[in-house]
TrEMBL record:
Transmembrane segments: none annotated. InterPro entries: Nict_dMeBzImd_PRibTrfase, Nict_dMeBzImd_PRibTrfase_bact, Nict_dMeBzImd_PRibTrfase_N, Nict_dMeBzImd_PRibTrfase_sf. Pfam families: DBI_PRT (PF02277). It comes from the Bacteria. Belongs to the CobT family. This is Nicotinate-nucleotide--dimethylbenzimidazole phosphoribosyltransferase. HAMAP family: CobT. Its EC number is 2.4.2.21. Pathway: Nucleoside biosynthesis; alpha-ribazole biosynthesis; alpha-ribazole from 5,6-dimethylbenzimidazole: step 1/2. The active site is at 317 (proton acceptor). GO terms for biological process: cobalamin biosynthetic process. Keywords: Cobalamin biosynthesis, Glycosyltransferase, Transferase. It is an enzyme of class 2 (transferase).
Length: 353
């Protein structure tokens, strides 16, 4: 799949379907708008799918797994061996998000898009290793532009394959030691904000570690000068293969008219890259939660999204997106099953002026 063809396949959401879904909400025998953002999400999903008959019963989480060469600069608490271990655990159902997904009725699709180690027998692991991790972005571009495009297009292809299999809702997750560094670097460029404003402690850096992280990102941006008007250039120079893959998932889902739950900080960076490549892709995004990373709120504001959950989560793996799934399903239960004002012969609520 070529990037140009992918972008041309993305159309805006169906506003007529949104209007019909809003009429359904307004007819239900309850106070108008009383489920807040959950109602708005159902309306938006109707527009994405092109019908007010909304369903998200089949749902999947795509987890992009990749390593980052910048860990050599002491910007993380742990080493790259953790990426491989957790990636393998996804296939065994032995991570936090696996437990959450079992409750939420969500299928998992872990992807080795750039893990440095060779992974052994991992049933269910999707393998598309673009490289054995990225290069150290402090000294050289993280990857080549063709590598970034390869990861992006694979993510898009996977999203479209899942749509073809009948999935009705996708969610994004990631695993990669060092990826809050790459995400902060991309956020600084795409948002045009100072590095120190968009950089947090990740999985738990000390104060000296945080200072080092900021120094490394600032130096990398100064050295490589990524073009904020060219998201693929930003991905290649200071991003990661996991972020590139997720960018593709957002674009592929949009081309397939499939809603996608954005997880936390890292997924939001990928979502912003996708929207900068194709503004219409914004119509297919739903924000699950707001993470504790400093740039999380800035990214959601740039995307025009409001999260369902504010619970100080920072686990990663797609956990916030999976946590939002039962909330959406409960909202849909009301949307589909509640009686209307007309059926109950109760006088309908009127919008407040």
């Amino acid at each position: 799949m070529e990037l140009t063809t992918l972008l041309q396949a993305i159309a805006p959401a169906d506003r007529r379907a949104e209007e019909l879904a809003q009429r359904r909400w307004d007819s239900i025998a309850k106070p108008l708008g009383s489920l807040g953002r959950l109602e708005a999400a159902v309306v938006r999903i109707a527009g994405m799918r092109g019908t007010p008959q909304v369903s998200i019963r089949r749902r999947a989480l795509v987890i992009m797994c990749a390593d980052n060469g910048v860990v050599a600069e002491g910007v993380t608490q742990t080493g790259q061996e953790v990426t491989a271990a957790v990636t393998e655990n996804f296939t065994r159902g032995a991570t936090s998000v696996c437990a959450m997904a079992r409750v939420a009725g969500c299928d998992l699709y872990p992807v080795d898009i750039g893990v440095a180690a060779d992974l052994g027998d991992c049933p269910g692991l999707i393998r598309h290793k673009v490289a054995r991790g990225t290069r150290n972005l402090l000294w050289e571009p993280a990857m080549t532009r063709p590598q970034a495009e390869d990861a992006l297009c694979f993510g898009a292809q996977l999203a479209q394959e899942l749509a073809g299999q009948g999935y009705e809702l996708l969610a994004t997750g990631e695993m990669g030691i060092g990826n809050t560094t790459t995400s902060s670097a991309m956020a600084a460029v795409l948002l045009d904000r100072p590095v120190e404003e968009v950089t947090g402690r990740g999985a738990g850096l000390s104060t000296p570690g945080l200072r080092r992280k900021v120094e490394v990102i600032r130096a990398a941006i100064a050295r490589h000068r990524p073009d904020p008007n060219d998201p693929l250039d930003v991905l290649a120079k200071v991003g990661g293969l996991d972020i590139a893959g997720l960018t593709g998932v957002f674009l592929g889902a949009a081309a397939a008219r499939l809603p996608v739950l954005v997880d936390g900080f890292i997924s939001a960076v990928a979502a912003l890259a996708a929207v900068r490549l194709c503004p219409a892709a914004a119509d297919y995004l739903l924000a699950s939660h707001i993470s504790q990373e400093p740039a999380a709120a800035m990214l959601l504001e740039a995307l025009g999204l409001s999260p369902f959950i504010c619970a100080d989560m920072r686990l990663g793996e797609g956990s916030g997106a999976v946590a939002a799934m039962p909330l959406l399903e409960m909202a849909l239960a009301v949307y589909r099953e509640m009686c209307t004002f007309q059926e109950t012969e109760i006088e309908a609520y009127q919008p407040l002026k």
